[in-house]
Design brief:
Radius of gyration: 30 Å
Distance between the termini: 46 Å
Order of helices and strands: HHHH
Structural class: mainly alpha
Strand content: under 5%
Helix content: over 70%
Shape: rod-shaped
Number of helices: 4
Number of strands: 0
């Protein structure tokens, strides 16, 4: 009688351990998917930031070029009017300020790009891997992220 009872208890506890094991696997899979979605969202946000900062940098470059052109014009006019010296100095200071804004915009763009690489866990020195991942990111648009999110919630 004791052996039969022991076997029944063993079977029951074995079934319980199997059920717990399946629940742990499901829980681990759910956590993995949640982390994947989180990384995808970070990547999406980082890409949006890069797009905005890229535009800021482009505008800063254009502004710097324009300020340099203005300085050039002021410098050419200098021999013709003494009062233009002050305007030329102002234009030179404006060029320096525009160059600083351009450098700051570039630094912000590089930081955002670094944040994106960090979110993806990519070594910035691995150029082949960078190109491969960037191409994959381009293919995963907002619709694809939403579809994946629905699958995770439903599945």
């Amino acid at each position: 009688g004791a052996t039969v009872t022991w076997n029944i208890v063993g079977i029951a506890s074995s079934l319980k351990r199997g059920e717990l094991s399946r629940m742990n696997i499901a829980s681990t899979e759910l956590r993995r998917l949640a982390v994947s979605l989180s990384v995808m969202e970070q990547v999406g946000i980082a890409r949006a930031q890069i797009a905005v900062l890229d535009e800021d940098y482009r505008l800063a470059r254009e502004q710097t070029a324009l300020r340099r052109k203005i300085l050039e014009i002021r410098s050419v006019r200098l021999p013709f009017a003494e009062s233009d010296e002050l305007e030329r100095v102002r234009a030179a200071v404006s060029v320096v300020a525009a160059a600083i804004r351009e450098d700051r915009a570039y630094a912000a763009l590089q930081k955002a790009y670094g944040d994106l690489l960090t979110a993806l866990g990519i070594d910035p020195n691995d150029e082949h891997r960078l190109i491969e991942v960037w191409n994959k990111i381009d293919r995963l648009d907002a619709e694809g992220r939403e579809r994946l999110a629905r699958e995770v919630v439903v599945g």
